[in-house]
Design a protein that fits this description.
Its EC number is 1.3.1.76. Keywords: NAD, Oxidoreductase, Porphyrin biosynthesis. Pfam families: NAD_binding_7, SirC_C, Sirohm_synth_M. One of its GO terms (molecular function) is precorrin-2 dehydrogenase activity. With 202 residues, the protein is α/β, with parallel strands linked by helices. It has 3 domains: 110 residues, 3-Layer(aba) Sandwich (Rossmann fold); 35 residues, Double Stranded RNA Binding Domain (2-Layer Sandwich); 53 residues, SirC, precorrin-2 dehydrogenase, C-terminal helical domain-like (Helicase, Ruva Protein, domain 3, Orthogonal Bundle). The protein is built from 8 helices and 7 strands. Strand 2, helix 2 and strand 3 form a beta-alpha-beta unit. The termini are far apart.
Length: 202
């Protein structure tokens, strides 16, 4: 599989399932500004609360193939292996399909991701070893602590400003390279001082 980040804003996403795994997938998609529908005979309290908070649609019955007709992304997360398998076979090849209990039956998977502001680091074993994926995510969580959130936001702001400066491209690249010094990650004062300097440039 090819790693790929996708903008899901205003996309239709249909999740078959109303249990713990379906909730986890819906929670992962929280904040994507997508149109999310969950279909299942029953839903956990967590899903009901999340749906009410975010305006997700809940349909209380068994999922049918036609429910996924116009879905940009289909997530098959029922707790019945045969149901997920049958639904996967019924979907069109052009659709993105995640089968939570058998990655090979779909064409999309959810990697374990570490998010620190604009910075995202994703890792997957393509279903070969979920335990390995969880272990690597834990290591990444520890390596990229919360200091990277403010730092990555700082880098994004500086890059946008530097791009607009009326200076030679070589000078822009030099300024951008300087920002990779670790002191800007570790110190908010250093970031503020650097931003004040950059703001003085025209």
């Amino acid at each position: 599989m090819q790693p790929l980040f996708i903008n899901l804003t205003n996309k239709k996403i249909v999740i078959a399932g109303g249990g713990r795994i379906a909730f986890r997938k819906a929670k992962t998609l929280d904040g994507e500004q997508a149109h999310i529908t969950l279909i299942a005979p029953d839903f956990t309290d967590d899903i009901i609360r999340l749906a009410h908070q975010r305006g997700y649609e809940l349909i209380q019955r068994e999922a049918q193939p036609e429910d996924f007709k116009d879905a940009f992304l289909s997530i098959l997360a029922t707790n019945i292996r045969e149901t997920n398998q049958q639904l996967a076979k019924s979907l069109d090849l052009y659709q993105l399909v995640c089968v939570v209990d058998e990655a090979g039956e779909g064409n999309a998977i959810f990697p374990a991701a570490v998010r620190r502001g604009p910075l995202q680091i994703a890792v997957t074993s393509n279903g070969a070893s979920p335990k390995l994926t969880r272990m690597l995510k834990k290591q990444l969580d520890e390596q990229f602590d919360e200091s990277w959130t403010g730092y990555s936001e700082f880098l994004a702001k500086c890059r946008e400003y530097i791009k607009k400066l009326s200076i030679h491209s070589a000078e822009k690249n030099e300024l951008l390279a300087e920002l990779l010094d670790d002191r800007y990650r570790l110190s908010e004062d250093e970031r503020e001082s650097k931003w004040a300097y950059l703001s003085s440039l025209k």
